[in-house]
Amino acid sequence: MEKTANNKEEAVISISKLYKSFDDNNVLQGIDFELHKGENAVVLGRSGSGKSVLIKIIAGLLKPDEGTVKVFGKQVDKLGKKELMQLRLRIGFLFQNNALYDSMTVSENLEFTLVRNQKNISGSELSKAIRDVLEEVGLTRAANQLPAELSGGQKKRIAIARTLVLRPDIILYDEPTSELDPITGGEMNELINKVQKRYKASSVIITHDLTCAKTTGDRILMLIDGKFVRQGNFKEVFDTDDKRIRSFFDYNFIQEKNETKSK
Question: What's the domain count of the chain?
Fold first, then answer.
């Protein structure tokens, strides 16, 4: 089901004329972008198009070559170490590989995140926070399991729980449905929408999965050759004769249908 766009609210992320290259590879070439409060913005593009580079720059994990990136009005690459750490407490980052600690149980993964960032939290507050987020993602029974004992979809849910436990204002999702089967991917999309509604979070969702984009995106931006070439809701983005965009649509949907028929 396609989402409808939210009314514009204040911008929590503002990006102007952003450039980033790695040697001779010009990844981002003049990106302009705003994320509004409470909005799910989906950045679509092929693998290697610079989608993940974009959100790493937003989180301060990479520095831009040119341009400005402001989060909550603060220019990220100008912040000192302490200010950057404080800003990151307001930004949840769902890594593509989930980045769970394999030697820790699910509860210990969540506990480690909370204690590291909220040193004065009490034992009762800690237990309640962990219990609440596990209930939110539907995995209370997995509290004492190790990541290796979980399915791919469960690991994604725990990674989201670890993000939510700090109650971030912005969530950056890096390929949230990658390596998931269609049913589990659909459940992940539902969870992303649930998080938006429950926590009023503003999110940037990086994906090449059109079903994810159509289901979760209030606004979709197509990244091609280092630039946003089209944006709007799903219909507005793909109602075009631009072969670069049409081929992306056809690969996701037409080929998928053909593969299903051949099985």
Answer: 2
User: Are 243 and 176 members of one domain?
Assistant: yes
3-state secondary structure 7-42: CCCCEEEEEEEEEEEECCEEEEEEEEEEEECCCEEE
Q: If you count them, how many residues does the chain have? A: 263
Q: How far apart are CA 92 and CA 89, in angstroms?
A: 7
Q: For residue 130, how many other CB atoms are within 10 A of its CB?
A: 23
| Residue 262 vs residue 222, higher pLDDT | 222
Q: What is the pTM of this model?
A: 0.87
Over residues 181-194, the pLDDT tens digits come to: 999 999 999 999 99
- Is there a contact between 193 and 215 (Cβ–Cβ < 8 Å)? yes
**5 located within any domain:** no
- Give residues with Cβ within 8 angstroms of 122, minimum separation 6: none
Side chain identity at residue 118, one-letter code: Q
